[in-house]
Input
Amino acid sequence: MSGFRKNCVFMLLTTLVMGGLFPSFAQENTKPFMQKAEDDYAVYTLGGTYSESGYLGARIDMKREGQTRIFRVTPGWKYRLKEIRILGVSGVPVKDLLKGAPVADEVYSGARMSEWSGSIWKKYGPPRGPFTHVSQTGVIDNENATVTVKVEFQEKR
Output
């Protein structure tokens, strides 16, 4: 069977199953897949929560016992912000850019960094501001459990 025909058959069966025309087939054959997807999402969400709390190397293991999920979390080290390095800026004082920024020794949070750089972009980005682009890169030092963040700006020419 050609790839096109296989795709058509798959789409037809998917439509029938999702439409409830083969409910027993859907329940029997999709339950393990859905459980696996839900389990993976639970591990992913829990890992994200630990990461936003500074545990960048958290390891999450999960097993099922019947309907119960059992999570084993090994958080590892809590990472802290070492410094923020501002690059590519000449038209705006660096101290103005660092207003509201996370400070050294604060627990590292990618969301917090994005929130801060987003506020800079809103204030200094197009159309009126001097910057055309901003990017940030985190350099992780596993030995010292720190993160150095490099924020690079491109100014209008």
The mean pLDDT is 85. The domain at 80-155 is CATH 3.10.20.310 (Ubiquitin-like (UB roll)).
